[in-house]
Amino acid sequence: MLKDDCASELRVHLANSLPLPSNVNRPRIDLIVFVINLHSKYSLQKVEEFLQHVDSSFFLGKVCFLVTGG
């Protein structure tokens, strides 16, 4: 395996709902991943609710949808 040192750092924050609590120490958010479970009838409804809390500027390359259970 090729190993290369770099200055990048990956941080993952998991949340069960939006909006996130206000926190000045929270790092910048670069990507939001919404997980939609096709086996849950409430999953898509919840994602639709949470989308209302996301600024429209995030929808250009900063939001993706991961669909599971297909």
TrEMBL record:
InterPro entries named in the record: Centromere_Cenp-M, P-loop_NTPase
Subcellular location: Chromosome, Centromere; Nucleus
Entry protein name: Centromere protein M
Gene3D superfamilies: P-loop containing nucleotide triphosphate hydrolases
Main location: nucleus
Superkingdom per UniProt: Eukaryota
UniProt keywords, alphabetically: Centromere, Chromosome, Nucleus
